[in-house]
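Q: My collaborator sent me two sequences in one message, no labels, and asked for predicted structures for both. Can we handle them in order? The first one she listed is below.
A: Yes, handling them in the order given. First sequence, followed by its structure tokens:
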Amino acid sequence: MPKSLRYPLAVILGWIIAIFMVYSVEQLGHLIYPPPADLTSQQQVNEYMKTAPAGALVFVIIAWFVATFVGGIVSCFIAKGASMMMAFFVGLLIFFGAISSLMMIDHPVWFSVITMVGIPIIVAYTGRYGKRFEQQVVL
């Protein structure tokens, strides 16, 4: 498969896997820290965030970090080359999703700082680690 098709496909599939990872880890967090059933409005979500257990918020951060890593690794594996670029694009999509969440929902400052610093670090690590997959091709 030519690079002109493989690279976009790698980013798209990496992003899809990343979204699945966010969902899966956050669902695990909801099992351990069940949110109130009556979160039906933006105001209720913002009020809950003021009293949410730190563990529940940590699960969200872990979900974003795991998604960034796994989605980036999947894209590196599929792309066969340009691992830093593949990890960057998948990480950028996760980063924009995190920024969107931070803008819509009132999060604690510590949560925002860890997220904004952590995701780029995970992207850099993923790009370096992803070089191991450059010789292995799926497609």
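Q: And the one she listed second?
A: Here it is, processed independently of the first:
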Amino acid sequence: MRIYKVGGAVRDRLLGIPVTDIDRVVVGATTEEMLAQGFRPVGADFPVFLHPKTGEEYALARTERKSGRGYGGFTFHASPEVTLEEDLIRRDLTINAMAEDDQQNLTDPYHGQRDLEARLLRHVSPAFAEDPLRVLRVARFAARYAELGFTVAPETLELMRQLSESGELEALTAERSWKEISRALMENQPQVFIEVLRACGALKVLMPEIDALFGVPQPEAHHPEIDTGAHTLSVLEQAAQHKQPLTVRWACLLHDLGKGLTPEEEWPRHIAHELKGLKLIKAVNERFKAPRDCQELALLVGEYHTHGHRALELKPSILLELLQSFDVYRRPQRFEEFIAACEMDARGRKGLEQRSYPQADYLRGAAHAARSVAVQPLLEKGFKGPELGEAIKRERLKALKAYKEAASA
């Protein structure tokens, strides 16, 4: 029995960056031998075991064979005869197909170290094209390591293009897709994830609503970058630079989908794109079964982001409606995330990345003013039921009028 660290643990150590996950492969062992040593089996599809003391995962060396469509369409074979090289060749990228023993002796049959030095994401074997999930994984790795100068090898991008055209991407489950998408969006350069998907033709298969934004112009006065797709990538980049949570990044990605529906004869204006885009945002949300908080914020940002930009001009009555839509009284954090998404949208414009966004503090102040209205005095006056609701609304409107006057003074 020989045990090796494999994959990301080896890759990241060689890159000199913190190792977060350690995967181990066991060569020359049987399931019975693992059980005899106290390892606990956890793998439903192939033999994976938890160490009896540390709880870390150990997998038996295995081979795999394509047997059906999609990510799950594989038959695995594990036995003591499977070599380390045979186990490594089934992996996606050369930089993930290295192993080392406890003395850090490197086993690198597919030249992963060479590709690390060349900053290339290259597939290990033609079997790469058998797993459609790898299109998303490679795009995610491109986003993770973009700041280190990594790019996708041309021949790997071509295999990804073939996969995108094969219909295999449609076999991916919403859950597996969302896992890769959400992880990619939380990388330091998530816009690279979208760029790579677009370069290999996967974006128009997985997210045609976003793909449709490229080549759609916007008014240069407000958007010096002009192209709506380029703007979307810049907004996503700003969200990452400002360490925004997943909810905000997802909303940033989807906020302008309505512009893809504007007839060419109306370009570069996009009248009512906020409302037009809601059905597209809903479709993308449902396609990937995004978590509820991501879905809700994306829809609200899509509908109201221009309200955010015009916050200082809004009438108190419109401002009150905006606050009501977000339920700022019970869910203040969601409104804070809306403000963040609006600010990222404003900063995601060429040359305007450092521009101040006074709307943010103004909206926070408005929410505070509305929340400060006390309900108890109204109850003491005898208001109840629908009448109480109307009375609260009147007082909040009065508070917002006073706030706006004070802010304008």
